[in-house]
# Entry
Amino acid sequence: MSEKRDILLVDDDPDFVEAVKVIVEKAGYNVRVAYDGKEGLEAVKEKLPDLVVLDIMMPVMNGHEACAKLKGDEETADIPIILLTAVADRVTTSTYTHRDMLESEADDYIPKPVEPNDLLELIKNWLK
# Structure
């Protein structure tokens, strides 16, 4: 049997994290979690994941900053990053825009609320 792929989920909403973790684990992946960008970077240093699902709007260090640090480091630059964000629904109340998403170094993004099957499809496609 092949080894399970390792996903790092970084989001500051504990309820969301738990729900997504259950869904992704049911699909056969190992899931580790972090609750802000800084914690996410520390988790990556502890053990390189196969893929990172990264929220944008978080305290301490936001997802854009964490993504830039990961993509700017030779050791982690090739790890696929999926940005997961509610920005699409909050453009008028957020400092983040659709342009930020497009200019990000992330490999892909998906808006919240996310359909579990859509997220799983993205994860599956990036881990081929």
In short: The beta strands are 6-10, 30-34, 51-55, 81-85, 108-111. The first strand starts at residue 6 and ends at 10. Residues 91 and 121 are 26 Å apart (CA to CA). Confidence is low (pLDDT under 50) at residues 89-103.
